Amino acid sequence: MRVISFGHLATRNITQFGSEGFGIFPMAPGAHVVVATLSPGGTIGRHPAVVDQCLVLVEGDAEVSGEDGVSHVIRPGAAALWSAGESHETRTQNGLTALVVEAQGLATALD
To answer: Which residues, at least 6 apart from 19, have a Cβ–Cβ distance to it below 8 Å?
Structure first.
């Protein structure tokens, strides 16, 4: 598992419609994206990632771990990235909202 920050990614500057300071980074073509919520005290139980998976924390708090079982706390704006087949788990004390992006090659795209 890697904890990542999106600040280093090379984004494409968007200026259409009078946009200023707006950039996008296409994470992975053909990606499966869902909004995930977890209630206070909740757990997403340990399971293997079917494909590369990124949990982008939008709101709340998360304690994430990968194959090694070592916990990392992430805050909104950070993400956890797991490789295909990697066992992982997510917990929260106060609840969370996250975007979960799943796609083949996602781990490589975020290097």
So the answer is: none
Can you read off the two tokens belonging to residue 30? 């053909």
pLDDT tens-digit map of 13-24: 878 888 777 666
DSSP for 27-78?
A: --TT-EEEEEEE-TT-EEEEEE-SS-EEEEEEEE-EEEE-TT--EEEE-TTE
pTM (global) more than 0.85: no
- d(CA 111, CA 63) in angstroms, rounded, equals 22
Gap between the Cα atoms of 91 and 111, Å rounded? 25
Give me the sign of the Cα torsion angle 7, 48, 39, 102: positive
